Amino acid sequence: MSGTPALPAAEVLFGRMADAVYLLEPLTSRIVWANRAGWTMLGLSPEEVLDHSVLSLQKDVVGAPQWGDIAAVIRTQSPYVFVGRHRHRDGHEVPVEVVTTCFLLGEQEYFLSVARDVTRRLAIEHALHEREQQLWFALNEAADGLWDWDLSDDSVFFSPQLQRMLGYGPEEMRPLLGTWTGNLHPEDAPRVQRLLREHLDGRRVRYEAEYRLRNRNGHYLWVHDHGRVSDRDGAGKPTRMVGMLQDITDRKMVQLSLESLAASDGLTGLPNRRHGEDFLAAQLDRCRRQGGSLGLCLVDLDHFKRINDLHGHLTGDEVLRWVARTFGRALRRSDLAFRWGGEEFVVICPEADLDQAWQVAQRVREALAMQPRENRLQVGPVTASIGVAVYPQHGQDALALFAAADAALYRAKVAGRDRCELARAEDAAAG
Ligand SMILES: Nc1nc2c(ncn2[C@@H]2O[C@H](COP(=O)(O)OP(=O)(O)OP(=O)(O)O)[C@@H](O)[C@H]2O)c(=O)[nH]1
């Protein structure tokens, strides 16, 4: 091809264009025309650019045979998109995306290439990629485990950290929703599933739950789990949900033991006075609403001071623990024994009438009296005096019942100890 084709309109049309435009001679790849952006991108003058070809300017096209191959593809796949690097006159490279079309002008075939400088785009892509890498690193290496649930097929990505948390090696944990649901603690599963469903249905802003999850060894970890729907389909139906799982076993254990400490007596492990009073109040409430009776036994160890004095306070403590264990043997499942304070205990017998409450008191007294043969404490007989009061005969509320039982207990002590006494009508009136 000789000379530049007469294209005056092209100068006007393409002169102000931001993208570089080159008209190429297909056989040699020589540039036969370029717009302003075309020659400035290469650091050349309008005349100098005509001395160049794709082979001299494109770093990624090496040699005529390769150009021949590319030209063949351009002819069949027009427009052809190519990402490469242009060589600037001063030596630096300009990353470009080139879109080339093939066309005929009269008898002559031409390639028209539009090259866009993609330096900025690549820099952004690179930065995004870096950020994504960092994000993944942070998510996977953080103490929390990550999960990513595809609702369309119930596949779940469990992050390496999540797998490690549950004791699984790489590739061991099946990436399915069933792996998670199958390891939920049966007592927690209904609540957790409900919370999840409520979030998916849009009734909860986010899903959050604390529950037990079985690890690879079959032990349960306590976990804190929270997540959100991240993608929805055109109809608004959730298609993807992501979340984080944290192992909170240590914290939960401390919390649970504090809770049980708060409700139980530190020395004997029996429910403490606060818990016992709450229980009594609830039972009395039930009696009032539904009718029925309830027995209350006030149990006071006899001459306990003597045990302390003779054998020491630590042995006294040991005796109190033994007494607590004895209740376990003497009581019905529905009865509750709790420590009232010092060497005093209370037994609540829900739904017991006078006779039944009396029998419970006798059983407790006898079980304690068995002690010399059973225990190894060598403190001699440990006996108790017990005052028994019954709702509704001896009192309508906890205060009145305690007063009546206390009066009966006093009589038991006076009468010689190691015995049970039933409250009397006048005890109720005195309360
Ligand atoms: N070892 C020990 N002793 C306790 C505890 N709480 C109270 N005591 C002791 O229990 C004793 C109760 O003494 P008292 O109230 O005189 O009653 P008692 O000696 O059992 O005489 P009675 O009137 O027959 O019951 C005191 O010596 C208290 O120090 C405890 O937690 N551990």
UniProtKB/TrEMBL annotation:
Residues 131-203 form the PAS domain. It comes from Sphaerotilus microaerophilus. Residues 207-260 form the PAC domain. PANTHER family: BIOFILM ARCHITECTURE MAINTENANCE PROTEIN MBAA, DIGUANYLATE CYCLASE DGCP. Residues 292-425 form the GGDEF domain. This is Diguanylate cyclase. SMART domains: GGDEF (SM00267), PAC (SM00086), PAS (SM00091).
